[in-house]
Amino acid sequence: MNVVLVGCGAMSKAWLDAAREVPEIAIVGLVDLDADRAKARAREYELNGVAIGTNLDAVLDQTQPQAVFDVVVPAARREVAFSALSHHCHLLTEKPLADSPDNALAIVERALQAGRVHAVVQNRRYVANVRRIRRFLDSGAIGAPTSIHADFFVAPHFGGFREEMRHVLLLDMAIHTFDAARYMVNADPKRAFCLEWEPANSWYTQGSSATAVFEFHGGKVFTYRGSWCADGFRTSWEAGWRIVGTRGSLIWDGFDALTAEAARPEREGLFDRVEAIKVPPLDESDRIGGHLGVIQDFVRAVENDTEPETSGADNIKSLGMVFSAIESAETGRRVEIAAEDA
C-alpha cells in the first residue's frame, strides 16, 4: 500500500514509527506547509526518494498512492480529507475526526460516497485492559452494565497552543475517554449535560476542568470528571474507572490493577455478599498496539474491503459527545446528541 503522509509535525513521529512496523506500507510522499520540516522527517526515517511537497493535490497527482495518512491540525482536516477522497485514496486520520460537527458529517458522507475506507486513530481502544474489560462485560459476569464512571486528573504543562485554546480538556483529550466508555459497554450516547470551569490554580485560558453526564441508549449513564490542572494523585492517561453492573462492579485504575466483584445470592445484614472474580487475560484475537494496532486494522480493512473498527461513521458518535458536552457547557442546558452522531 503506497501512502502519502500529510502533516510532518511532532505527532507524525508516532505515525511513522508505527508505519515502519507494517511491511505492507510504503511511504511514498510527505507533505507539510514547511517543506524543510518534511525533508527533515524524510532524512530522519531514511525515506530516500519520497516525494516532498507543500501541496497535497500535487503530491497525490505525482505519486498516485492508495492511501493518505492525515496528521494535520483539525482546522485543516476537511480540506485534506476532500483532497484525498477526490484522488480515490483511502484515508486514515488523526483524532479528532474534524473541528466541527458539520465538517465531521461532511467528511463521513464524502468517504461513503467515494466508497473509500475512512478511519480515525482512536488508539485508546487498542489498550490491553480496554479490550479485556469489553470482553469481560460481554460475558455477563457482573450482569448488564448500568453505570460507567471515569476520572481523569493530570496536570501537564504543555506550553503552546493548548494553554490558549478554549474547551481545552473536552476538545483535546476527553474524546479518548468518551470513546473508551462507548466501546467498553457497547452503547451509544443520546443526551449530554456538562459544566466547565477554570480553577484558581489553572494556567490554561479556558476549559481545563469539566464534569459531564451522558445518557446512553439502553438506560446506561456515563459520568466523566476531569482536569488538566489537578496536581497530586495523578491518574493514568487512560483515566480511572468504575463500571457498575446489575450483579457486581469492576474497577480499573487505568494502569495495571483491574479487579471485579460479583454479588452472591446471600445477604449479611444490609448487604449482599460479594466475591472477587477474575477478569480473564487478553484473548489472542484481541487487537492492541495503539497507533500500530489502528494502522494494522486500517490495512486489513482496505485489503479485505471491510469497515475498520474506528471508522469515521462510528467515531463521529464519540466526537458528537465532545461537541454536545461543549454546547451544554456553553448554554447550561442538557443537549440531545444528534441522530447522525449517535
Automatic annotation (TrEMBL):
- One GO molecular function term? nucleotide binding
Which segments constitute the Gfo/Idh/MocA-like oxidoreductase N-terminal domain?
1-119
Recorded hits in Pfam families, A to Z, give: GFO_IDH_MocA (PF01408), GFO_IDH_MocA_C3 (PF22725)
Where in the numbering of this chain does the GFO/IDH/MocA-like oxidoreductase domain appear?
A: 130-250
User: Which InterPro entries does this UniProt record tie to the protein?
Assistant: Gfo/Idh/MocA-like_OxRdtase_N, Gfo/Idh/MocA_oxidoreduct, GFO_IDH_MocA-like_dom, NAD(P)-bd_dom_sf
Coiled coil: which residue ranges? none
Q: What name has this protein been given in UniProt?
A: Predicted dehydrogenase
| Record organism | Neomesorhizobium albiziae
